[in-house]
Write a structure and sequence with these properties.
Shape: elongated
Radius of gyration: 34 Å
Distance between the termini: 72 Å
Number of strands: 20
Order of helices and strands: HHEEEEEEEEEEEEEEEEEEHEE
């Protein structure tokens, strides 16, 4: 025992002996002295907070849509990956866009969240925070369905204790909330492709039209936003705008794979007489040099619809041998099932 504490105890005992014994019984004096000593000792040291093992805490996860104000997902899925590699991965599904409450054991985690209302996406490597991958579903040998608008939020560090929650926000700033509140900021990670065909000569001959974009990535890693998988094509329906000699359509995809530099647009038109023609355009520069890699506009100017029969193409795959300078008649069905989900 330190000399200072020993001196305090001696004074307390002396006080009890000289002042209390004449008025109280010996037993009462001893009890009183013990209480005084206990209070003095407690006032002289700082007690550490001990967090019990095996406990859990309810967290309130709130989604902040500052970077995607128009997003209206039906629900969000959350994955909490333990920093300790042998820990358990926790998954929660929350309805709506606002967020909700989840309960987690005490520990350190990394959080991945994304909207769960896109049925044309399959996920792989779901046991890995860095490797978690979204895959567009195939609609054919080289075609995939448009994945839709995928929103992703990540929190690189979340520490859950009996005292609250501490986490790093999207700017890397440390946040500490005793109430257990975590704010997440989802962002759009899909790429929107806007296709515009204008100055069309022969619009009166068009019964329906579609387009196929070749060169889009089939998959994307959610945390790093890295486009991966294979280069594939996506089809979209082209619609007319009133009496204007113009057609347009929209689809979504997972961007460009690093090292891939070719994008092709095939416009397919069915005339009022039932004959179908296709024409292919190199749109690589428009896609790769877009000012907004998440919102790409592809424009084809001065399209002339053929008004007579053409020699039929010998190759059913219009994405391989069709020339850039002319139309080719085709006798195949083009998948145009491409809607932003």
């Amino acid at each position: 025992m330190k000399p200072r504490f020993r001196h305090i105890i001696y004074r307390a005992l002396a006080y009890a002996s000289n002042c209390l014994i004449p008025r109280l019984s010996v037993l009462g004096s001893i009890v009183m002295a013990a209480i005084v000593v206990s209070l003095i000792l407690q006032s002289c040291r700082h007690s550490a907070i001990i967090c019990p093992e095996g406990g859990s805490r309810v967290l309130n996860v709130k989604f902040m849509w500052d970077e995607a104000e128009d997003a209206m997902p039906d629900g969000m899925t959350l994955y909490f990956f333990p920093v300790n590699s042998d820990g358990r991965i926790w998954r929660f599904d929350i309805a709506g866009r606002d967020g909700g409450k989840v309960e987690l054991p005490y520990g350190s985690y990394r959080l991945l969240a994304f909207n769960n209302d896109l049925p044309r996406i399959d996920y792989s490597d779901t046991d890995s925070y860095e490797g978690f991958t979204a895959n567009a579903r195939f609609a054919g040998k080289t075609l995939v369905y448009a994945p839709g608008l995928l929103y992703v939020a990540t929190v690189d560090f979340v520490d859950v204790t009996v005292c609250g929650v501490e986490y790093l926000d999207y700017e890397g700033c440390d946040k500490n909330c005793p109430q257990g509140l975590i704010r997440c900021y989802p962002r759009l990670e899909s790429t929107i492709y806007n296709v515009i065909v204008r100055d069309i000569d022969g619009m009166s001959l068009v019964r329906s039209a579609s387009a196929t974009i070749d060169g889009i990535a089939s998959a994307m890693k959610l945390v790093s936003n890295e486009s991966t998988g294979h280069t594939v094509g996506e089809s979209l329906q082209l619609s007319t705008l009133g009496q204007q000699p113009e057609m347009s359509g929209v689809t979504t995809g997972f961007g460009s794979i690093k090292g891939e530099f070719e994008y092709w647009l095939t416009v397919t038109v069915t005339r009022t007489d039932g004959k179908t023609f296709a024409k292919r355009f190199d749109v690589s520069s428009q896609v790769l040099n877009s000012s907004n890699p998440r919102n790409v506009t592809i424009v084809v100017d001065g399209l002339e619809i053929p008004d007579d029969d053409l020699p039929p193409s010998s190759d059913d795959d219009v994405g391989i041998d069709v020339g850039v300078d002319g139309w080719h008649e085709i006798i195949i069905d083009i998948n145009t099932d491409s809607v932003i989900a």
